[in-house]
Design brief:
This protein is mainly α. The protein is 68% helix and 0% strand. The chain contains 3 helices and no strands.
Length: 116
């Protein structure tokens, strides 16, 4: 893939994104009512305010899950070409996993993985 392919891919991605948003705005009825602003809890009316605060630990845990889950997106292409690249690929993935492991140790040391 050359730079022309990358430019065409970027333009196509922008066109599809903008096209989807434009079509959504054209066909949207746009009615407003009071029920649209209320929180939805499986059809059951909410008993308390929907603006309750949650422990920040839940957000940290979710972000850590996303970070370590996205690493698989980067490991899959590596696994596909590992035989073609050879020993260089092994050192690259070892450095990548080492950096991820250091991030895991940092999160563990800070207590971000403690549930309560």
């Amino acid at each position: 893939m050359g730079s022309v392919s990358l430019i065409v891919l970027t333009i196509a991605a922008l066109a599809f994104s903008a096209g989807g948003i434009l079509i959504g705005r054209l066909f949207n009825k746009g009615s407003k009512n009071s029920q649209k602003g209320q929180a939805y809890e499986c059809g059951i009316p909410t008993a308390t305010s929907p603006w309750n605060q949650f422990n920040v630990g839940y957000y940290l845990f979710a972000l850590l899950f996303l970070i370590f889950d996205v690493e698989l997106v980067f490991m899959y292409p590596w696994a596909v070409v590992v035989k073609k690249i050879g020993i260089t690929a092994l050192f690259e993935i070892l450095i990548f996993v080492f950096i991820l492991f250091m991030g895991f140790l940092y999160a563990h040391k800070k207590g971000a993985l403690k549930w309560m």
